[in-house]
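note to self: dont lose this again. the chain is below, predicted strucutre after it. 157 aa total, dont forget to put it in the shared folder this time
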Amino acid sequence: MTGTLVTSKVNGDEVQFIADPGETLLDVLRYKLNLMGAKEGCGTGDCGACTVTLNGRIVCSCLVLGVEAEGATIGTIEGMADGNRLHPLQQAFIDHAALQCGICTPGILVAAQKLLERNPDPTEEEIRYWLAGNLCRCTGYDKIVRAVQAAAAQMRA
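---
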């Protein structure tokens, strides 16, 4: 066996996996932990489709090695809903038609959730700046921004 045993907390649950040298966190999440929400869009950290949180910071999981997750707390789109109850951001994306193909959506939702944790009342400019690392090739960004604004208003109420 050439891999390293890694223990992490993913979406609140302790997990263990063997990370091979050079294996990305994205590949570990998808193919060892069966968490398929994060997508590989570019493999170079340019598109944000693989965005997750690592110890409270948003990262492109295609740029993080699986072994770097040792002792880390990781958040993915799969941990966003509360059972069958969608997070307000998820519901707002549906309500505002802020998604189409779904490749970028999980990464955008993870990033937007982190934004609203830091700033519950962001301006449109702040939302656009915060989500600049997440590329959407289908919807454009107006519906996404409106959905984040709507979710923020609901969460503040």
